[in-house]
Please model this.
Amino acid sequence: MTSIRRQILRRFLPPLLLLAVCCDVGIYYYARRVLTRQFDIALLAQARAMASGVIWDEEHPAVVTSADAGSAQFSSRHHPSFFVVRWSDGTVALRSSSLGDADLPVIDEFNRPVNMPLPNGETGRAVQVQFLPFRDSDDEAHFQKSAGPNAKARGKLTLLLARDREEAIEDPCETLLGSLLAATGIVVIGAIGLVMLTVRQSLQPLARVAEEAAQKQSVDDRLFPITGMPAELVPICIRLNELIQKQQETAQRERRFTADVAHELRTPIAELKTLAEVSLKFSDEDTHSHSAFNDALAIANQMQRMVTALLSLARGQTAQQIVQPETVDLVAVIQSHWKRTEERAIALGVITHATFPEKFTTDTDPALLGIVIGNLLNNAIDHSPRGGEVSLELSENSSNWSLKISNPAPALTDEDARKMFAPFWRKDESRTGTQHLGLGLTLASTYAKLLNLNLIAQMSNGQLQMQLSHSSGAVS
Model:
């Protein structure tokens, strides 16, 4: 089952990564383009500046000099620059010392930087400019006079300047790319954390609804709160409350029906019991009618116990049962019921074991608490096999206490433990047994709620454990 958090991350993270990568690529190529453009502008400006510094020596017509020819960038061993000045017929007039025995290729482009492999094996940018070797005048006659008779034949000069682009373009781009990747990683990690935190905070109302639902033990519990809920959860809470209200109405009708039936049956059962008792008194013990009246009296007594239990259950479930709390010694109340069940346990061949503190006082209704404890003990004794051990342990801490009753129940399952407090529930679905009515644990659970006690049943290693507890947060 996939959680909402994982679904949000799966749907949010890939687009975020894609967006971040696209932004990184866009920024990287934009920065590379800007740096390349700036580099080309500077390269062309340098080439033109170098061309303007070329001087024709009148005394030595074959020699051309430039003011930038001896610059340190053309003699450096680390990322050197290269240039060559040629006449229009291809004759080299001047070249940088960084070229050594190598040469720069001839290109047809003028005033437009292009990529070019450099003599040192690197890839650089190169630009070529064309010019006349003089700077004081643009008059061709002056050029012919100063340059000599060979100038006309040779024509204009071309200067090809090439520079390594690693320092100006590649290194900054690599640094930028590394920074972008690091920033992307930080942003993605931060976004994941922020999304997780935001989702967790946003789902807290949903978690409260789930916790509220988990704490509901019956349809009589309060409805889900609407105030303070996000707008998305309000319709869910409203529908849940409508369902609970319908269940409450159904439960109320069932309780009224149970109470009404029990009240209606009290009188005819009492009459049947009286009739059976009178008939037994005036009949001969050896006759068949005496045995029949005896069975009728037993059935009437069982029906009377059931009616009494149903009436008690109805009063407890409809809050008609009056709770009269008083300060009592909890140990004394439990021990009094434990002694009575010990006698039944001995008769049934069940081993008993109990652990009590010396004394523990609490505020509760001793009569109702006695009914709860008595029903739990009787259930443990009656359903334990011969030779089985029933244990009782009372533990206390400050104003909190817990009573745990365990008995062997190898035939029961965890599902049975969850159904155990339902009215008339029996493991034997055929209901062949007549000793138990199936209302004792239901009545114990109802009275425990009236006393603000928590009663749970669970299976552990073939043992049925009934735990009755009280915390200081509840008021008995």
